[in-house]
Sequence to fold (319 residues):
Amino acid sequence: MKRTCGGIFPFDCRPLIFDAPFGDRDGWHVHVRAASAIVPFAGGFLVAQDDSNFAAHLVGMSVKPVRLFVRDGADVFSESAGTKARKPDLECGAVMTIDGAPCAVFFGSGSTPARMRAAIVTEGHAGPILVRGADVTSLYVAAREALDISEDALNLEAACVVGSVVRFFQRGNAGASADCVNASFDVDAMELARTLLGVESVMANRIANVRRYTLGELGGAPLGFSAAAALDDGRVVFAASAEASPNTYDDGQCAGSVLGLIGANQEIDAMWSVDAAGDPKIEGVAIESIDADVATVCAVTDPDDPSLSADLLRFRLIL
Fold:
């Protein structure tokens, strides 16, 4: 593994503030609270929040809400309100073709039963965004079996489409059980689309290409996968954050993040420490554009504090 301090060049950072506040007393949104995934969508990007029923649609400087799940007693979730166990924890995002249409799909982390669902977002014919939910419990059961890890170790934190498969990334948490590792695995994209439609289940023998990774540490905390975006040539840009999490359920102190590049051979080619104020926890990455051997990468952060706004960071990445 090659780790360098060069190769990425930050050039933009802005807080993600909604165009207009919305919600009620128990679900008031002024800004994106805990950005957890970002995918290209409808002329911009769609950003998930791991503690809210709403995503954010970014087009230029505009940030508009998109409801992903119906209100179930609350629209935002927290430990202090006693609702954290019900949060969707959408951590993985990918653009998939479902029923012949391109869709933004956000998957839960799988760390609790409430986090074993997905939100599927498409554009309507007249422009409005259409959303439907899906129970994908079979994906998480199959992943646990294929990865050979315990129930309390599962924590899917990233996904991207690589060719004909959706590649998921499992995050290893410092304080979780000993079998909690950083890993990736593939699911056939067409089969997963049928699972999202409720037509079939994901079986463990359909989980393919399991790879395990050693990412090292940053600032004394172990690095774990937190985001991924695929390039057209099969390489994957990823983020990993150094968070001293005691388990897959609770947050921990973050010592910062790295961006990295996994080659088409699925070996880590490079990792670069992100030099930004506040040691940001990067939870989502997306490719904005590629010009020759330079990619413009968008990243979103989770400040782990609902009173603070998530940030949109932009980098130039030398490939």
